[in-house]
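tool_log.txt
---
The assistant was asked to compare two proteins side by side. It first ran the structure predictor on the initial sequence, then on the second. Raw inputs and outputs are pasted verbatim so the downstream comparison step can read them without reformatting.
(1)
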Amino acid sequence: MKMDRVVSTHVAVSHRLTVAWLNKAMQAGIPAVEIFCARQHFDYHNKSQIAEMGHWFRDAELRLHSLHLPMYNDEYWGRSGPQAVITLTEPVKSKRIASIDEVKRALDVAEVIPYKYGVQHLGVSGEEYDDRKIEAAFTALEELTIFARQRGVEILLENIPNRLSTAERLVQFNEATHLHMNFVLDVGHANLDEGVASAYRIMRDRIRSTHVHDNDGQADTHLFPLLAGGGTVNWPETMKLLRSRPGQYPLLLELREVPGMENPLAAINQVFDRLEELPDPGNDQS
């Protein structure tokens, strides 16, 4: 059984997201997207951009599967300063409330463009573990999950490269808070940390979506699987794991733009085809 194909607009995150790009994705045969909330790309503050997208999605075959909730509140990928960082693990209440309000703005997009999942980071890349940060995240997510549910959205937590969001820490967070949150398995991030197979086994009962990309095992480079050089993810093993629960989650590519690539949507379809054509390895990894 084939997995549902979804593409993250992260592959074009340095450019303004337009209905022209969405049309190209739809014409390329891509059935669904995850929109990445970065204000230089999709400005969740901009009612005109949201309205234009909402009108387009109402008549389009392309579905909006999910929104990646914002990481920064500026249009410069956080380069305007530390105040631009959106993080739910901020122990200072006033600063945390500002982050919560930004996430709510993105969740409100569902009032115009319905979507199923909002993908949320717990902390920022490289962040160390601290019980106070876990308490802060619990307080924030307790409020945000209710806010999201009222708009028909489920917030999913993603494993990212820090000491708060490994697969094991995410499960521990659920056990400690009783929030019962489901997860996004980020294959590239798992490859940088505990390994894909280990992360999958720990998270599998609550995986509802994926982020699929490759890297060299050192840097989070979001390479095109099986096309870019230098990737280290074991794709036959990974695809066997992802296929083991058909229908539970999609094959969602979250890739980084390659300068000079003439037709990235064609390359994306090539990645989908190559991943789905991989035979299962002989030994049972599930």
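(2)
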Amino acid sequence: MQGQVKILQVGVSTACLYPELLEDALYQLAVNGVGCVEIFVNTHSELKGRLVHELKNILERFEVSCPSLHPYTCEIEPLMFFSDYSRRLEDALEYYKLYFEAMNILGAKIFVLHGGKADRGKELYCERYSRLYRLGQEFGVTVAVENVSRCQSRSSAFIRELSGMLGSEFAFVLDTKQAVRSGETPFAFLDAAGKSTVHTHVSDHGELGDCLLPGKGSFNFKRFFEKLNSLNPSASVMIELYRSGFCGISELITSYNRLLKMTEQYRNFS
């Protein structure tokens, strides 16, 4: 096949349907025609054995791709990876192998990391992140830092510094609603991370809130996709909303189809 995929995939996170059981959320998205998903793991038992293979079977049955996985342990990553207790760090690295092994089964390549909360210094952050990044690479997985308003990654200046310090061992996940909650624009984070932006969580924002279905606010998606395409033509785009942000799955699917239409020119081979 000739040419280049301009935007790799557009999809929906299973987190949108929380607290549906993960396999039920995935099935609902798949049966309604969503061709790409992010798996949001909600508990330990979803990382191994029967459940992981059930997820794989749903993906294969409906020909759904899964570029990314989000861990349920994101809230305790400061404790696991950014404390002074060395044994806990080693145990956390060992535990995260379970995510990477599950990703290998599901075909996912991007792992979403919230990272530290307290400002312990950029050097410590880089040292701990690098260890996890390199571990992920052993499994063919890219560990990518997400901007989160309650974490160190809340600032585009911080993301810019990380990118400069880590170089080729840095990857970034942009969350548009989290950028807004940090008092910045998503474009500031795209400028900061540049070509290291490998994945995005998108929603709309405006007078009605900061986490709306795409098309329900005033965010300039046309400009956003143009910018993203110029930085990384293979970045993936996931709708990630809270369940209170839409009335039913039909509304979510309509929004997904809207994004497909918006990105059509970037998803075709040329």
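---
observation on (2): Residues 86-106 form the longest helix (21 residues). The radius of gyration is 18 Å.
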